[in-house]
Task: inverse folding
């Protein structure tokens, strides 16, 4: 089975969690809501990739976030590809005075409570990833 290592991060501010709606320009999971995610390249440390993706996707710099928790790796079968799995490394960061500037990968964002997540069409297992951090 082929594995792809991915980071998925959530930012929290005033007890609300940031989710992003993936744009039509991305390769996979178009139009679905997700955390801040990206593929871990080579031998990168997951925490390095998580901070880089936060900056790339929201324009929030490392000095404005604080790591609250890193969860255990979660294995998810890929719904797109046969014989493929994602190994997700979850992270939760607090953010002070968040000003979000989206890049091309996402088209919309929302600050929600964890219970509101069920109202959104999300990437697979996003609820499990967030629950692992709460």
Result:
């Amino acid at each position: 089975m082929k594995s792809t290592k991915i980071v998925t991060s959530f930012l929290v501010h005033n007890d609300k969690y940031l989710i992003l709606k993936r744009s039509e320009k991305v390769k996979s999971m178009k139009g679905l809501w997700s955390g801040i995610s990206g593929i871990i390249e080579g031998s990168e440390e997951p925490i390095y990739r998580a901070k880089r993706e936060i900056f790339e996707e929201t324009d929030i710099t490392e000095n404005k976030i604080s790591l609250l928790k890193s969860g255990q790796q979660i294995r998810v079968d890929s719904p797109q590809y046969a014989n493929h799995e994602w190994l997700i490394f979850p992270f939760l960061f607090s953010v002070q005075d968040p000003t979000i500037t989206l890049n091309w990968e996402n088209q919309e964002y929302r600050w929600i409570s964890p219970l509101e997540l069920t109202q959104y069409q999300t990437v697979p297992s996003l609820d499990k990833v967030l629950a692992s951090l709460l």
